[in-house]
Write a structure and sequence with these properties.
Layout: E1 3-4, H1 9-41, H2 45-81, E2 86-95, E3 100-102, E4 105-113, E5 123-129, E6 142-148, E7 151-157
Antiparallel strand pairs: 1-7, 2-4, 2-6, 3-4, 4-5, 6-7
Helix pairs in contact: 1-2
Length: 163
């Protein structure tokens, strides 16, 4: 059974998420600006300072925790949509259980060996998106992986006879 990641729905959903975030930030910014205008006209200095500090902290938090990862994922999906996929057959060496940070996103790693003699020079490492279901593979399983660069886009177990 072949598992394929990135069917096209992901790009539409992340685009909608970014639009919702932008609209929400725009509406909140307008409210803060209205509060700042009022505080300046009414000469309420503490309100100006409070709104500015609160809005600055909220922007830093939202950018770092919500918007920046979403923009990185959108950029990633756009890059792999137009990239050339390649398939490689090999034996699973390891599937990392902890995430690594790459290109603004978190990935786990899958290492396979494509060499028939299991020479170390035949090892290939692929990044598996941590937000997607992880491959249910164990060391020694023979697999065919599909990838764009080093990013895994699909996999399936290979038959033992296809060697």
């Amino acid at each position: 059974m072949a598992v394929t990641y990135y069917t096209g729905k992901e790009r539409a959903s992340i685009g909608a998420y970014v639009r919702r975030m932008a609209i929400g930030l725009g509406a909140a910014t307008l409210c803060v600006l209205a509060g700042l205008v009022y505080s300046r006209l009414a000469h309420v200095r503490w309100l100006s300072i409070g709104l500015t500090l609160l809005w600055g902290a909220a922007l830093i938090f939202l950018w770092g925790m919500k918007l920046s990862p979403a923009l990185a994922y959108r950029k990633f999906l756009a890059a792999i949509e137009h990239a050339t996929e390649r398939a490689e057959t090999g034996v699973v060496v390891a599937l990392a259980d902890r995430d690594s940070y790459q290109d603004g996103m978190t990935f786990s790693t899958l290492r396979i060996n494509t060499d028939d003699k299991m020479d170390v020079t035949g090892e290939r490492m692929f990044y598996v998106d941590s937000g997607l279901p992880q491959p249910m593979l164990s060391p020694g399983d023979r697999v065919v992986v599909t990838a764009c660069g080093n990013y895994l886009t699909g996999w399936e177990r290979a038959d033992a006879d296809s060697r």
